[in-house]
Design a protein that fits this description.
Blueprint lengths: L4 H13 L5 E2 L8 H12 L17 H11 L1 E5 L10 H14 L3 E2 L1 E3 L6 H10 L4 E5 H4 L9 H10 L2 E5 L12 H10 L4 E4 L7 H10 L4 E3 L6 H6 L7 H6 L4 E2 L11 H9 L6 H15 L5 H11 L8
Parallel strand pairs: 1-2, 2-3, 4-5, 5-6, 6-7, 7-8, 8-9
Length: 316
């Protein structure tokens, strides 16, 4: 596990250099211990959806992982829980309510699965204060256009609730991964605020197309551009221009703690992308998350002041 002053300083130097108060990380995992233990075992065994060795860099107890995130200067993060079978999502949501209540810097998270009860427990999650949802098409092995999810998508579209969704075909394809099933969902629910996890890799180009077609779509940077991902799923160089142009709809995500490298690397690779400027980085690391999740306080005031200043952050 990487847990050193050098790592902390490397992370903090990035956002301090940008004159930010810290980082918003939209893609982190906190789960009930028995579930997290099973997830880690799956990674340790290089399960079939992983396809390669994948060491967990930040394997420690829950309180220690919270301490590490906060030492990096992460101001807000998520507890992305997700079911792999029916009759699991509702109790994960109950756990997430309690976790968020005891962890004020965690955006209350919820999830769902295509099952008859889904509409009811998603409505309950929204009423209890859920601010972000997680869908994992690859692990769940379901079609996001399943009729059992139609009520769910409608509720989430009406609420304007962001949904972090792993729907790209990386690291290995699933039966319903890729852009086509998501486009089918968006035809019925065009106002959905989907955050495409891992920038949709390896179908980066196709998910950029989707973002151009639907104005409420976002991309998260989770694992993208890192040495680990570039070996198997390189981001196409000819798309860097579109990446820069979409700076107001890209959010920083880390996949903490389940990453096979240090947190600083996930941030550093973004600062080294061709043609990105400080405004783009401020948006990705902080400002876009503040706006999307309506995070109040001094951080939000700083974002508003930057946008109102002459020549302020346009996002580019």
């Amino acid at each position: 596990m990487i847990d050193s002053m050098d790592e902390q300083e490397a992370v903090r130097r990035i956002w301090q250099t940008l004159s930010l108060p810290g980082v918003i990380d939209v893609h982190t995992h906190f789960m009930p211990k028995n579930v997290m233990d099973k997830v880690w075992k799956y990674f340790d065994d290089a399960g079939p959806l992983i396809g390669r060795p994948w060491p967990i860099t930040y394997r420690s107890d829950e309180q220690d992982r919270l301490r590490i995130l906060r030492s990096f200067g992460v101001l807000a993060f998520t507890s992305l829980v997700y079911p792999h079978k029916p009759d699991m999502a509702a109790w994960l949501n109950q756990w997430a309510v309690a976790f968020a209540a005891s962890t004020p810097d965690c955006l209350q998270t919820a999830t769902f699965f295509p099952e008859p009860a889904a509409g009811g427990y998603v409505r309950t999650a929204l009423e209890s204060g859920a601010r972000v949802f997680k869908a994992h098409v690859q692990v769940g092995g379901y079609d996001p256009a399943d009729p059992l999810l139609d009520e769910v998508w409608g509720l989430l579209a009406d609420a304007g609730a962001p949904i972090v969704i792993h729907c790209g075909s990386g690291p290995t394809p699933g039966a319903h991964t890729g852009p086509a099933p998501i486009r089918a969902v968006l035809r019925r629910h065009p106002r959905l605020r989907l955050i495409i996890a891992h920038m949709g890799g390896p179908e980066y180009r196709e998910f950029l197309d989707l973002c151009e077609d639907f104005e409420d779509l976002y991309l998260d940077t989770t694992m993208t551009f890192t040495t680990f991902s570039e070996e198997a799923m390189p981001f196409p160089r000819q798309e860097y221009g579109r990446l820069r142009d979409m700076g107001e709809r890209i959010l920083f995500g880390s996949d903490f703690p389940n990453i096979p490298y240090g947190y600083a690397h996930a941030m550093t690779v973004l600062t080294e992308l061709p043609g990105v400027d400080d405004d783009w980085l401020r948006n990705v690391f902080h400002d876009n998350g503040i706006r999307l999740f309506s995070i109040p306080g001094a951080a939000a005031d700083e974002v508003a002041a930057r946008r109102e200043a002459p020549g302020g952050a346009g996002g580019g």
